[in-house]
Amino acid sequence: MNTLETIEIDVSVELGAAVLPVHHLLRMGRGAVIELDAFENDAMRIYANNTLIAKGEVQVDEGQLNVVVTEKVIKPA
Questions:
Q1: R_g (Cα) of the chain, nearest Å
Q2: DSSP H helices in the chain
Q3: pLDDT recorded at residue 1
Q4: Cα–Cα distance between 70 and 56 in angstroms, integer?
Q5: 57 vs 6, 32, 50, 69, CA distance in Å?
């Protein structure tokens, strides 16, 4: 098990995505809103080392945001 404890994995959760030209991004100020390609009830995408591994949802528990895995993504062989 000691070998597994030393492996680092970059985990990220994506709520949605948007494509913006850099000049639009540079003109944005505090409080600007970026429209994403997802709706509020859509599942979030969970990545490990930039590979999609699961989908999930956000839950709030005692002021803490939690990501709950709702579906594993099986990679086709």
A1: 16
A2: 2-5, 22-27
A3: 61
A4: 5
A5: 28, 24, 19, 7
* Token pair belonging to 67: 């990501």
Q: How do beta strands 11-14 and 51-61 pair?
A: unpaired
The reported pTM is 0.73
User: Which structural domain range is residue 56 located in?
Assistant: 2-72
> How would residue 12 be classed by pLDDT, with cut points 50, 70 and 90?
very high
In the chain, the amino acid numbered 68 is V
Task: Say which CATH number the domain at 21 has.
Answer: 2.30.330.10
Q: What is the DSSP code (8-state) at residue 76? A: P
Give me the numbers of helices (H) and strands (E) for the chain, helices first please: 2, 4
Name the domain count of the chain. 1
